[in-house]
Amino acid sequence: MTRSRRCLLRSGLAVAALAATFAGAQAQDTVPDVIPPKATLDIPAISESKPGWSWAAVGQMIMDFYNVPPLYGAENWQCSLADFLTGVQACEAPKLSAEEATLKLVQGYSPFAYKFFGEDPVVMRYQQHKVLSPIDAIHEIRFERPFVAIVQPPKTGADDKGGKDVVLVIGYEGTPTDLRLIVNDPRPYQVGSNPYTDVGAQQLDVNGEYSIGYNDFVQQMKWTGTISWIKPQ
Fold first, then answer.
1. Distance between CA 45 and CA 170 in Å, rounded?
2. Does 22 score more than 60 pLDDT?
3. What is the pTM of this model?
4. Which has the least CB within 10 A, 17, 110, 127, 155?
């Protein structure tokens, strides 16, 4: 069974065929009347392969979820993405912020990769926002769309230079009034210096999957921007 056929919500509730027509930035989804209390997309947490490569790990999770092929094989996913951004086969980071690098991957990697393998290009649609409201975050997951959150976690030590990173939101628990987000964060955190567990988040996977309260994610992780509506056209 292919991954595309397996992409059901882990809650056991398969999203019905919700076919929303995308007609530019102002397009709207047809929102279901009943919202289940929990839904998570089948996207395993992946750690960044090098320090500061959150953009590469998030890009890998997105592309793998939508079956976009890696240039160098599954073992070298993040190098494939780095070389796409730099245009050089050196597995080096581009001189871009994590947000800029992730956006460029969403914008261009998919059609490039399909064309590289001699297939028809497939373009990813997307939108950019600031912080999503609780109900909008729920709707993204209900329509099987992981979304990128731009965050600035608290510094974890003297060697932590701080700055903005990207994480991938893959699910939720609760209702709009008591929402928790399921977040894949590629950064490795040491025991005793983990900003998620410091605010009471639950670590669900050793590779960096967390359940964190919506307000804690906004306030403590400093969620300030979002790339959403990510899906092949």
1. 9
2. no
3. 0.86
4. 17
Tokens of 139: 């709707």
pLDDT tens per residue, range 2-12 = 443 334 343 33
Are the C-beta atoms of 205 and 163 separated by less than 8 Å? no
Tokens of 12: 């056991």
pLDDT band at residue 154 using 50, 70 and 90 as cut-offs: confident
Long-range CB pairs of 81-87, under 8 A, 24+ apart, other chains included:
81/55, 81/56, 81/105, 81/109, 82/53, 82/56, 84/108, 84/109, 84/112, 84/113
Nearest to 15 by CA among 138, 122, 183, 174: 138
Residue type, 79: C
Bridge partners (DSSP) of residue 202 are 211
